[in-house]
Amino acid sequence: MKLKPLADRVVIKMVEAEEKTKSGIILTGSAKEKPEVAQVIEVGPGGMVDGKEIVMTVKPGDKVITSKYSGTEVKIDGEEYTIVRQNDILAIVE
Q1: pTM over 0.90
Q2: CB contact at 8 A, 52 and 87
Q3: Exposed / middle / buried, residue 29 (Cβ in 10 Å: 0-12, 13-18, 19+)
Q4: Closest CA to 85 of 51, 61, 63, 54
Q5: Are 68 and 35 in contact (CB under 8 A)?
Q6: Which among 4, 15, 35, 89 would be 20 to 30 A from 68, CA to CA?
Q7: CB burial string 33-66: b at 16+ within 10 A, e below
Q8: Per the annotation, which location comes first and is thus the protein's main one (predicted)?
Q9: Closest by CA position to 92, among listed 31, 12, 30
C-alpha cells in the first residue's frame, strides 16, 4: 500500500536513534533518545490551502526536523509513518 498525501501534507518516517554514543558506548533501548530527524517519504502537490498558494519545498529523500508534537501517526504494512503539514517542518538537514 502506498500513501499519497493531499495538499500541503508530507509523509515522513522517523530515522532510528543511534545505538552508540560518540565515544563508542552502546546504548540500551531505554537509554536511546527519541529520534529528532525524519526522512521524507512522499510529498503532497501543494496548491491553494486556506486561500494561500503553497509551494512544496521538501522532496522525497530529504531529512527534516519537525515540531515535536505535530502530525498524525499511522501504521501501514507494519511500518510507522507520520503525516505532517509542510509548515510543521522546521528545517531540512543537509
Answers
A1: no
A2: no
A3: exposed
A4: 54
A5: no
A6: 4
A7: eeeeebebbbbbeeeebeeeebebeeeeebebeb
A8: cytoplasm
A9: 12
Cα 56 to chain centroid, rounded: 14
The 10 Å Cβ neighbour count of residue 16 is: 9
One-letter amino acid at 53 equals E
The alpha carbons of the chain give a radius of gyration, in whole angstroms, of: 15
CA distance 89 to 23: 31
CA atoms lying within 13 Å on the CB side of residue 51: 0
Is residue 19 a contact partner of residue 26, using CB atoms and an 8 Å limit?
yes
Per the CB < 8 A criterion, the answer to whether 72 and 54 are in contact is: no
